[in-house]
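>> received
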Amino acid sequence: MDNYDLDEEEKEMIEIDNRWKKIEEDGVKDILKYFDRIHDNLSSYNNLLIGAFLH
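>> returned
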């Protein structure tokens, strides 16, 4: 193995690491998006129950 192979492998490993970081960031964004949607639906349902109870 010469120096060129090591530099190329290091670049590939950095690219792979960057791809994993992007996948992780996208996953966190998706979790937050779905959490917000569920939270909004539960809040609406809660308001509906409160309105029915007060009526």
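>> The chain has a mean pLDDT of 91.
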